[in-house]
Amino acid sequence: xxxxxxxxxxxxxxxxxxxxxxxxxxxxxxxxxxxxxxxxxxxxxxxxxxxxxxxxxxxxxxxxxxxxxxxxxxxxxxxxxxxxxxxxxxxxxxxxxxxxxxxxxxxxxxxxxxxxxxxxxxxxxxxxxxxxxxxxxxxxxxxxxxxxxxxxxxxxxxxxxxxxxxxxxxxxxxxxxxxxxxxxxxxxxxxxxxxxxxxxxxxxxxxxxxxxxxxxxxxxxxxxxxxxxxxxxxxxxxxxxxxxxxxxxxxxxxxxxxxxxxxxxxxxxxxxxxxxxxxxxxxxxxxxxxxxxxxxxxxxxxxxxxxxxxxxxxxxxxxxxxxxxxxxxxxxxxxxxxxxxxxxxxxxxxxxxxxxxxxxxxxxxxxxxxxxxxxx
Amino acid sequence: xxxxxxxxxxxxxxxxxxxxxxxxxxxxxxxxxxxxxxxxxxxxxxxxxxxxxxxxxxxxxxxxxxxxxxxxxxxxxxxxxxxxxxxxxxxxxxxxxxxxxxxxxxxxxxxxxxxxxxxxxxxxxxxxxxxxxxxxxxxxxxxxxxxxxxxxxxxxxxxxxxxxxxxxxxxxxxxxxxxxxxxxxxxxxxxxxxxxxxxxxxxxxxxxxxxxxxxxxxxxxxxxxxxxxxxxxxxxxxxxxxxxxxxxxxxxxxxxxxxxxxxxxxxxxxxxxxxxxxxxxxxxxxxxxxxxxxxxxxxxxxxxxxxxxxxxxxxxxxxxxxxxxxxxxxxxxxxxxxxxxxxxxxxxxxxxxxxxxxxxxxxxxxxxxxxxxxxxxxxxxxxxxxxxxxxxxxxxxxxxxxxxxxxxxxxxxxxxxxxxxxxxxxxxxxxxxxxxxxxxxxxxxxxxxxxxxxxxxxxxx
Lengths: 376, 461
Fold this sequence. Notes:
Chain A is α/β, with parallel strands linked by helices. Chain A contains 15 helices and 14 strands. By secondary structure, chain B is an alpha+beta fold.
């Protein structure tokens, strides 16, 4: 059960105009409320004197991230870490406010909402860093020496293994569309993110729509089969495992990989036509108090030791060697490198955050999928 | 003998032509390189701006195309491709803003600044700053002409300037590098060409050095025009040197010839006088010894005078002088040794000629001296003008003058008998030299006494 607990990712949360306008207020309220609830103080590994302090704000639960933080503390005696668990919207709102006021909030900001991270960097909130390990990062996983992607997380399809034992699970979007057309059995038995409430779901859906012409047909198929929409990855995985759902579409692969280690009722497919890949992004805010420790921390996550922790302990993988490791983990051979379509860290991500654009995209989505049939 | 071989210490500091040309070349090249690098830097900035402004305009255009009107509302459906276009500038941050017909912000960064002035009908590109960093922005307007909506939508797209600065720097650096390398190559080529161009000078130098010390014949070296001028100047100089040396040798020969005989005679008579006991004959010998030594002195005077004249003929510059003054001075100097009055007859107005006062005075002194020695009393010197443009200076005496045969040989070196110290030969030779130097004619008249003198052109002063 402990395992399940840590699978609650914090990337999913409502975002929208109202929230944005209220952001400063919310940020203040949050700042007060989070201080006790989701703040963790990790004293130096050797229990000795505190020499340095590092404050991390992250969407990833400490339960998942602890091995990384502890390994880093082992290499840096006297380093105390304060770890805040926040949702991506909380981070975006708080950091935007801090960026304008110059207030100190954190030394490292980590979020799976790459688009929001990129906007913060675009708005000049980040400090440029010279990281030795970052030289090995592919171009898509870094921007301006300020934003660094350190994970390799595919958007996968998950399926109920028992149901697909005989017929075999769909291996691509085309096969999925054909499958959904062939039978009415899947009505109400396919799930994906509710993009209105899941930031990650919106992000994947928006990028999906940019990739290929299949998007329209996928959405239409989902709509026709009355697909169920969920806020969080765990909800989908749980339901696919126990058979309430048969297929989950566009699910965060890292959590799925983690889930199947304990529960083999679920199978994972990296869609053959293309597999979106995103990298969690980290940056050091301009007003960081320990910028050196912060940049050392990011460098550590990108180092080979950090990559091993990311891959083995967290299943988050790394942009540097993620593709090979992922093939090993899933036992699936990607036909060619074209299959992986990493979501590039460029200002193009700003488009998905544009209010007007979001409204248009949501309108199209709702036309096919009127609303969440289930929330938790 | 002047030595051409030793590199005589020059009084002025000299530098090689190659060095001076090289220095000038270097200065010109450095100035040219600096100027081209400045130009390249401006060009680089302009080229880079043009490239990246195209991205901005393209992105703005793509956004403008996606402005729509739906149910009486203006909206914009941001195209991802516009931002992907801007992302080609990998390191640059992107800002955008769309303003609707009533000045209402449709989307984007609400505080992105507008340009101070906008161009009508075309996109306005301007530099401004946003969020504390310099940005380059484009403002593009799109006129709406829908049934339900009129007015214009403004699209602003802005980008930070890191990549365009980097491109400009890279263009400039490469251009500067090429220019600098070209300049260095050019410099060495020009040095090489310079050496080829200066080779004729080396040839001349070698030709001169290879000569015998006493070879003063003209140089015969193939040389380009500029150097040929130098060669001919050298040749002219050597010609003059040759003449001077010849004149000197002549003088030495003359002097030796002229002086040896009287000295021999003097010594013989002095020897006679030593052995003579008879007071009467001794006295006669004494008198002769005296006369001989006076003659020898006069000969020495004349030789020196001649040397002086031939020297001056080469070096003296002719100036406007008053011929009356020449007559007066010559008379004053001769009077001291003549022991008799010399009549000087001068006009009231000055008689100007172009000449060398010293040479003319020597000539007149010689004529007067001849008249004192050989002519008869009274002796006089006259200055007159003839016609409009001729001046004449004449020495007159009441003697017989010169024989025809003697007169014909005036101007030759040895017209005296050479033995007699009283010979007028050298004196006339001097006069002839002076006449030649002044483009004058020697007048020589026998009639009522003897007249000899110079006639030369008059000048206005």
